[in-house]
């Protein structure tokens, strides 16, 4: 009996024209646009170095996420373009006394 009820309910919910519950959306909320940039990181020798670079990147205004690979000497940074830019991220990072230096990696999307 329970299986029949569940099957009947699932069929009703998938029929066209039957409204389904939608998540409530708050009025006035804006979506935040996030973009990525790739950085070359100089001076890393271990996973601890990579974690230090990651932590320093995450402290910068507008940076939302950072993945750092010490073996490749790279970082991928997600940021809000309304708050910062790749050039500002590089300048702010290099102005902090972290012992590491970053530079923009050229884009291969061309």
Describe the structure.
The chain is of the alpha+beta class. The chain has a domain at 35-104: Alpha-Beta Plaits (2-Layer Sandwich). It has helices at 2-14, 47-58, 86-95, and strands at residues 35-42, 63-69, 74-79, 101-104. A four-stranded antiparallel β-sheet has the order 2-3-1-4. Strand 2 (63-69) and strand 3 (74-79) form a beta hairpin. The longest helix has 13 residues, at 2-14. The N and C termini lie far apart (61 Å).
Write the CATH architecture name of the domain at 35-104.
Answer: 2-Layer Sandwich
Give the helix proportion (percent range). Answer: 25-40%
In terms of DSSP E residues, the strand content is: 15-25%
Strand tally is 4
Mean pLDDT: 79
Q: Describe the biggest sheet?
A: 4 strands, antiparallel
- With strands numbered from the N-terminus, the spatial order across the biggest sheet is 2-3-1-4
What pattern of helices and strands is seen along the backbone? HEHEEHE
Spatial separation of the terminal alpha carbons: 61 Å
What is the global morphology?
Answer: elongated
CATH class of the domain at 35-104: Alpha Beta
Uncertain segments: 1-25
Q: Report the total helices.
A: 3
CATH topology-level fold name of the domain at 35-104: Alpha-Beta Plaits
Rg (C-alpha, Å) = 23 Å
């Amino acid at each position: 009996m329970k299986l029949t009820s569940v099957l009947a309910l699932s069929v009703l919910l998938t029929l066209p024209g039957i409204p389904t519950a939608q998540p409530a959306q708050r009025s006035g909320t804006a979506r935040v646009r996030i973009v990525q940039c790739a950085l070359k990181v100089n001076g890393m020798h271990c996973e601890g170095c990579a974690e230090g670079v990651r932590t320093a990147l995450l402290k910068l205004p507008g940076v939302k996420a950072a993945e750092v690979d010490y073996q490749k000497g790279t970082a991928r940074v997600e940021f809000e373009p309304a708050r910062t830019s790749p050039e500002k991220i590089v300048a702010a990072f290099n102005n902090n006394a972290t012992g590491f230096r970053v530079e923009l990696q050229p884009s291969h999307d061309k």
